[in-house]
UniProtKB/TrEMBL annotation:
Record's protein name: SDR family NAD(P)-dependent oxidoreductase
Keyword Kinase on entry: no
Listed CDD domains: 17beta-HSD-like_SDR_c
SMART domains in the cross-refs: PKS_KR
Domain of life per record: Bacteria
Pfam families: adh_short
Keywords for the protein's UniProt record, in alphabetical order: Oxidoreductase
Family according to the record: Belongs to the short-chain dehydrogenases/reductases (SDR) family.
Molecular function, one GO term: oxidoreductase activity
Residue span(s) of domain Ketoreductase: 5-184
PANTHER family named in the record: SHORT CHAIN DEHYDROGENASE (PTHR43976), SHORT-CHAIN DEHYDROGENASE_REDUCTASE FAMILY PROTEIN (PTHR43976:SF16)
Organism listed in the record: Hymenobacter jeollabukensis
Amino acid sequence: MSTTKTWFITGASQGLGLALTQHLRHLGHRVAATSRRLSSLTAALGPASADFLPLQLDLTDDAAVRATVTQAHAHFGRLDVVVNNAGYGIGGSIEELSDAETRQAFDVNVFGTFNVIRHALPLLRAAGAGHIINVSSIAARAGATGWAVYGATKAAVSALTEVLVQDVAGFGIRATVVEPGGFRTNFLSADSLVLPRQPIEAYADVRASHARYLQLHGQQGGDPAKAAAAIVRLTQEPNPPLHLLLGQDAYNRAQTKLDALQQELTAWRGLTESTGFAQ
């Protein structure tokens, strides 16, 4: 019995999306890969072939998303795994980022994910099977100073996946949210991040946080090739997890957050429970 699958991956021209697409092609899987620029895809991964379909896609255009998902399904005859990987980092205090910049981050990181899921689900439901993998971030669980908007977009991706998995369980469809820590991609390069164009001097802690993260570029502890292998393994498990952290740093940050949350819950339990009607 063949174990090859048909994958649909957004944001495949760089970073984890590129590493995953390369790994899948090496394993012999069929891949429909998207990017905002088709030239970036073909430069990184080569031209279209029987097992590879590069597609240009603006995730904020719902009609384009529907057409692209439909095209991929028609080309391969099925979709087995949908990976919502596309996204970008945006840093700054809330008042340093404009409404347009903030909404654009949500349009790409969150609503782009909604758009793909919306149009992939009818196809997966009809097949009675499928796996949706949404790439979030450890920032969704344990945010860092100066990354409120980015953390909010990724928290939305994690939260929507937690309910999605319940909504689609009866159709034979699985869902997992992947929450990576730092991986050695171009994510933290100055060219990839959106940072305040007019920083406010008072936010010294935010500037210091950004400087620390920018210095990590090229030094991150996570290996993208190993992350790709881990994501493929997810799809081979009979009972895949709803949440998958990737990277030792992600595990450590999540554990620290859990410990702090438990302490806070305990400390304020009395006030929490005091708000009910008297018996």
